[in-house]
Design a protein that fits this description.
This protein is of the alpha+beta class. It has five helices and five strands, in the order αααααβββββ. It has a single domain, classed as Nuclear Transport Factor 2, Chain: A, CATH 3.10.450. 32% of the residues lie in helices and 24% in strands. Strands 1, 2, 3, 4 and 5 form a five-stranded antiparallel sheet that branches. This is DUF4829 domain-containing protein.
Length: 156
């Protein structure tokens, strides 16, 4: 059986095109991240974000964030991603937020606030002192089929 070179080339180009398109998809558009299922709960996303902080892995933290929040955290001088260690972490149930509008003007169909308590240690106490801390994260998504992403942090 002889296969035409044109058919083989067309097949290879089709496969490459599919791989390129799949590789260019925005992580915020519904794909699961390593260690998280596509349907991960807000608490699971926050748990993964805390693990990224403890691993000093800003890239992983950005993947769990909206583009707005990731960009905002990029220039922080005393970033927790530098040397922080969060222990005794307790992640509380999410509180739904109705009518949430992101500071960048984007509206999301769903938004929740997840409160977190932990013991913090880091060398630069510029914005957050060491010791027992209560903090929280705002998570958003466009619809139930999309993953939750962190869009804000602080005390609610």
């Amino acid at each position: 059986m002889r296969v035409s070179v044109r058919i083989v080339v067309a097949f290879i180009l089709a496969i490459m095109g599919t791989v390129l398109v799949a590789g260019c998809q925005d992580g915020d558009e519904g794909t699961a991240l390593p260690g998280l299922s596509a349907g991960a709960s807000p608490q699971e996303v926050v748990r993964a974000y805390v693990a990224a902080i403890n691993a000093h892995d800003m890239t992983a933290g950005q993947e769990l964030s909206t583009p707005y929040f990731a960009e905002r955290k990029e220039g922080v001088v005393d970033s927790l991603f530098e040397d922080a260690k969060l222990s005794d972490v307790v992640i509380h149930a999410p509180d739904p937020i109705s009518g949430y509008e992101s500071p960048d003007g984007k509206r999301y169909r769903e938004a929740v606030y997840v409160s977190v308590s932990f013991t913090l240690w880091h060398s630069d106490e510029g914005s957050m002192p060491n010791g027992s801390t209560v903090w929280g994260y705002m998570l958003v998504r466009d619809d139930p089929g999309r993953p939750w992403r962190i869009n804000g942090d602080g005390i609610h």
